[in-house]
Amino acid sequence: MVTTVGTFLQDVQREDKGIERAEVFATDGSKVSDATLMEVLLMNDFKLVINNTVYSVSPPVKDKLSSEHATEMEDVKSLVHRLFVALHLEDHQVRKEKELLQKLDHLKEELLPLEQMKARITDSADAKTSRLLWVGLALMSTQGGALAWLTWWVYSWDIMEPVTYFITYGSAMAFYAYFVLTKQDYIYPDAKDRQFLHYFYRKSKTQHFNVERYNKLKEDLAEAEESLRRLRQPLHLRLPIQEINDKD
Questions:
Q1: Which residues contact 204 (CB under 8 A, 6 or more apart)?
Q2: Which residues form the Calcium uniporter protein C-terminal domain (predicted)?
């Protein structure tokens, strides 16, 4: 009920060491997949190839089962399948858990030097972005002080009003140019993040930091951790929660 064509062929070769080639073909010449269940294979005629000899196999025709008998057979098949899974589930989970732990250790070893380099690059980019913000504040303060000095001590408001108008209009043009180039509104947090990324990627290039490889390793690490978490869930292991915690 759970035996596949691949398992059947392996058993045949294990039984007779002189068999070098064993394959199953349908009557139309197409090869039957190793994953096909033997129950499905025995529903129709097929060809069994042993080395260079072809055997035509005609399975006996099954009697038509009553609906009640067919239901009972389906229940038996389901029970056998569940027993097979239950008997092999623990070994599979232990093997899979070991593979995931080894993969996690390998990914963490690869990520460790990249994480250290990324931290240095992030600190440098953050410091440059902060300096740029303070420089912008200093320039705006200088501009305001200069306009006030020119308005009250050098010239009058009648002279300085057109100047301030064109400064305001020039600032609006600068903001619109920012939108045209970046397709984003000039919002201070977004502008800061954009400048940070600019410094980050420029520093990464000079430090030979592979951002794509780092992101791929982080994705693989998150995927492996999620697979391990799901594997250790009590419903998957069929164990109480306390026993799982003790095992961890």
A1: 121, 211
A2: 15-217
